């Protein structure tokens, strides 16, 4: 009988989740490794070599590590659920003129649910992942996510959608470590190749990071359907023609194919008229944002105006703001104007290092 009970560890084959699994194994947990097959690269239309968490090499690396340490390893095929929910949403969001956040949706609706369902079948009390974040139970009975110690690797931003029910059974073993320390642990384990493994910042089902090509491959006749729309200024003046509104994102400056003699940015996307609005950097700035689909982590509700740091992108440093729930939405008033508020992306709220919650920008 193990010292701490049985725990199911999500293993991608990368250094982070591998070290997390070994760490828990050495702490006395009865570890069971699980690698989720979320995507088949052959169906993406990509010419890139199959790499990352869904590749055969990564699955084999995870299994080899588990065998070496003497704990079981399973592969769970969730391609159907992943495709039906995450990829369909990804395509639908771009066709609606928004910029999707697939990693948040995957964590919230696919990975955690799949992990816990399998954990129940295997009699595992807890699940664990290799995310750089921390979790604790506070006095009000809520499970709170806080930033990982390594500021450059902190992944709390993509975890705002995980429910309290699921957080109650979740552990993040890497939260108090830096990436450099984790790589050194892998070296100390004798896992030299694992320690050297690179990182991918791409969307797993867009391996060459070319979402436009993915959309063309996924949606029959897309280019013909959306070609020939107008570039326009905020006053309605037409200044050129574009390739189709789904191929542009808020804040985009490069690749517009139109010259003004000064920097111009995509400030708005209007799918109903196939119009892409361009403006100056000042026109890109806003002081107010509305957020839908809010999931709160630290508190049950925020009915009174509250000071918070709001991040509107994963690598965003965050901005001082006042937030309050109104009519089912979260209203964010930034203390200074921020650039690039993109509908569909996540807005995530922090109190110090603690994750208050988040939602999707309108």
From TrEMBL:
InterPro entries: MnmA-like, MnmA-like_C, MnmA-like_central, MnmA-like_central_sf, Rossmann-like_a/b/a_fold. Its main location: cytoplasm. Residues 228-279 form the tRNA-specific 2-thiouridylase MnmA-like central domain. Keywords: ATP-binding, Cytoplasm, Disulfide bond, Methyltransferase, Nucleotide-binding, RNA-binding, Transferase, tRNA processing, tRNA-binding. The record marks 131, 345 as: Interaction with tRNA. Residues 153-155, 313-314 are annotated as: Interaction with tRNA. The active site is at residues 106, 204. It is found in: Cytoplasm. GO terms for biological process: methylation; tRNA wobble position uridine thiolation. It catalyses: S-sulfanyl-L-cysteinyl-[protein] + uridine(34) in tRNA + AH2 + ATP = 2-thiouridine(34) in tRNA + L-cysteinyl-[protein] + A + AMP + diphosphate + H(+). One of its GO terms (cellular component) is cytoplasm. GO terms for molecular function: ATP binding; methyltransferase activity; tRNA binding; tRNA-uridine 2-sulfurtransferase activity. Its EC number is 2.8.1.13. ATP binds at residues 10-17, 36, 130. Residues 291-360 form the tRNA-specific 2-thiouridylase MnmA-like C-terminal domain. Catalyzes the 2-thiolation of uridine at the wobble position (U34) of tRNA, leading to the formation of s(2)U34. Belongs to the MnmA/TRMU family. This is tRNA-specific 2-thiouridylase MnmA. The lineage of its organism: Bacteria, Pseudomonadati, Bacteroidota, Sphingobacteriia, Sphingobacteriales.
